[in-house]
Design goal:
mainly alpha; about 85% helix; single chain
Amino acid sequence: MKLLQHIGEYWLLMGKVFRAPDRWRMFLRQYSRELEKQGLQSLPIVVIISIFIGAILTIQAKINTENPLLPTYTTGLLTRETLLLEFSSTILCLILAGKVGSNIASEIGTMRITEQIDALEIMGVNSANYLILPKILAFITMMPFLVIISIAVGLVGGWGVGAFTDVITVADYMVGIQYAFNPYYVWYGLIKSLVFAFIITSMSSYYGYYARGGALDVGRASTNAVVNSSITILLMDLLLTKLLL
């Protein structure tokens, strides 16, 4: 019953969120701030994680495909497909759920327990629309760029293994990442990332918006936001993979 209550409250909240803003100038100002906070400030962690994951995938793929019957381009092919199909969409979003999701939940939760949201409601402002809509739209806007950057940087990380170690040659790696390339896999990753971006921001906003109590409850709301959005991402990943592939 509690699960059904959460689901009902979540969709009722989304109904309040997705309405035309009362003041477009204020909305655009909030939207631009969220683009920087959720998108640009997430860029360093995306780059650092992606370049190391690309390098690690290349090394592990090479070790596990040491077979004279397999072509030499297999390592680059496996690295590319792993980045396109799973890491740069699903795993990256799970990582960002911890960064972006916890930030959103704690920010809105703090506003709730300090009665700032109540003050907005008293002034006749649709607090859900004012606080949550810019966050959702900003992260959905930035997510495809983060995914593309992650794919590119991950491939560069794999190239670095070939350039600076003797694990694989650059020539073999380059042939592998170009062999039998399917452009649809890029679109597949982008579509998944848009869905996951909505899940992260909307669920984190929900837990923050309905936080009650004190600072401890804000922390609990932040934890619940990260855990439940991560579980939902994995469930949706299974469903989208079945539908899109």
